[in-house]
Amino acid sequence: MSCKVRFAPSPTGRLHVGNVRTALINWLFAKGQGGQFVLRIDDTDLERSTKEYEDGIKQDLTWLGLEWDDTFKQSERFAEYDKATAKLKADGLLYACYETAEELDRKRKIALSRGRPPVYDRAGLNLTDDEKAKLEAEGRKPHWRFKLSGKPCEWVDLVRGPQAIDTASISDPVLIRADGSYLYTLPSVVDDIDAEITHVVRGEDHVTNSGAQIEIFRALGGKTPQMAHTPLLIGADGQGLSKRLGSLSVQQLAADGVEAIAIASLLAKIGTSDPVELKDSLQTLASEFSFEKIGRAPARFDEKELMALNAEITRGLSFEDVKDRLAALPLGDKANDAFWALVSENLQKVDDAAIWLPIFFGDIDKADLEADDAAFIAGAAAYLPEGEISEDTWSVWTGALKSETGRKGKGLFMPLRLALTGQAHGPQMNQVLALLGREKVLKRLG
C-alpha cells in the first residue's frame, strides 16, 4: 500500500524553519515512496486563524517546492467531528467535567504536594445527573474528557523504536472545551481516519500525546497510522529557536535572498547520518531519505551552514540565471557577464551584488585613509602603465610602486583596494582593475 502523510499547520502565523523541517520530512518520505502528501489546514481556532496566514503558508510551501496532492480545512469539517463526539459519548468514552481552571490547578498542586503524579481524578465520571444539573444551573459549562483505558499503549516508532505510554500515568485528555470548541486531538484523529493517512510524522514533543490518540483511533474504529517522532530543532548554540523564529520564517529567508534548495538541503540532512551537502533537487533528497538515518539527538540549525550552501548555489548561477534579479537592484540594469563572473565568487546571496554594482557602474565615497596611505595613493596614478588596462596591469603597476616606495604586502595592496573599491575584501584586484577601466581608476586615485 502506498503511503499517505499530512502536514497540518495552523494558519496563525507564517512557516518557520522548525515546522518547515516537519513538512519537508513528510514530503521527502512520501515522494521517496511514491506516496501522497496532504496539506491539512488546522483552523479550528476561528479567532486566531486567518485567510492571510493560510495563503502565506501555501505560498511558502509552493516556493520551497513542497507541492501537495490534496488539501482541506478543518473548519469545513465540524459536522464530522460532531459525529465522532456523539459516538464517543454513546460508548461512554467521552464524559463531562465541570471544574474551573483554578480548581484543576489546585488539584494538581495538592497531588504534587502529596508525592502523587498530577493526574486528573475523574471526578466528572462520578457526578450524578442531579449534580450535573445543579452545576449547570450555577452557570457552569462542561468540558469533555476522553476516558483512557489505563493500560500501556505500545507502538514501534519509525525513529524512536519501540515505545510504550502507560495511559494510567496521564490525565484523560480534554477533547472539547467548555465553550464547545474542539482541541487539536479529536479533529486530528478524525481527519487522519477519513483521509486514510498511513503515517503520522511529527516532532518528538507529541510522543506522549500519541498514547491517547492511538486509543481514540481504536475507539472510533479507525486504523492507527504508523508513527515517526523526530527530534526537535535547536540553534547552533544548543539553545531553542523560539526567540529567533521571526527572522527564520520562510518569508523572511526568501526576502533575504536565500535559495529554496539551500534551505531544503540543510533541513533534510541535519540530525541525520548523512553529511550536509548541497543537492540539486528535492527529488534527489527524497531518493536519499530514510527514517533510519535520523538520530535521536536534537538537530542543530546553523545559519552559517545555510549561508555556505547558499553561497555554493550563487557561485553556480550564470548571468542569465540572475539577470532579472540584478536588474531589480540599483544600477543592476548595467550589470553584464563580466561583472557577474567577477563578483559571484564573493557573494553569499545574489542580492549581495548590490554592494558591488556602484563600485563598477557608479560612484563610491572617497576612502578614509591614514595620512601616509593617502599620500601613497595620491602618487600611485603616476606609475599606472599607459594604454588599455588588462588583467596584467595590476602586477606591473604594483611592481613599479613596490620598487619606488618600498611598500609590500598588505601595506602596498590594501590602500589600493580601499581607494578603488571602498572594500577591504573582494575579488582579485587584477580582475577588478580591468573591469573598472582607466577612467574610473584615475578618478578614484585623484
From TrEMBL:
Function: Catalyzes the attachment of glutamate to tRNA(Glu) in a two-step reaction: glutamate is first activated by ATP to form Glu-AMP and then transferred to the acceptor end of tRNA(Glu).
Alphabetical list of Pfam families matching this protein: Anticodon_2 (PF19269), tRNA-synt_1c (PF00749)
InterPro entries: aa-tRNA-synth_I_cd-bd (IPR045462), aa-tRNA-synth_I_codon-bd_sub2 (IPR020751), aa-tRNA-synth_I_CS (IPR001412), aa_tRNA-synth_I_cd-bd_sf (IPR008925), Glu-tRNA-ligase_bac/mito (IPR004527), Glu/Gln-tRNA-synth (IPR000924), Glu/Gln-tRNA-synth_Ib_cat-dom (IPR020058), GluQ/Sye (IPR049940)
Catalyzed reactions per annotation: tRNA(Glu) + L-glutamate + ATP = L-glutamyl-tRNA(Glu) + AMP + diphosphate
Residue positions of motif 'HIGH' region: 9-19
Chief location bin: cytoplasm
Self-association state and partner proteins as the record states: Monomer.
Subcellular localization, as worded in the UniProt entry: Cytoplasm
UniProt key word Protein biosynthesis: yes
GO molecular function: glutamate-tRNA ligase activity
Record motif 'KMSKS' region, residues: 240-244
Name the UniProt record assigns to this protein: Glutamate--tRNA ligase
Keywords assigned: Aminoacyl-tRNA synthetase, ATP-binding, Cytoplasm, Ligase, Nucleotide-binding, Protein biosynthesis
Domain Aminoacyl-tRNA synthetase class I anticodon-binding, chain residue ranges per copy: 341-445
UniProt domain Glutamyl/glutaminyl-tRNA synthetase class Ib catalytic: residue ranges: 4-275
EC number of this enzyme: 6.1.1.17
Entry binding sites for ATP: K243
Family: Belongs to the class-I aminoacyl-tRNA synthetase family. Glutamate--tRNA ligase type 1 subfamily.
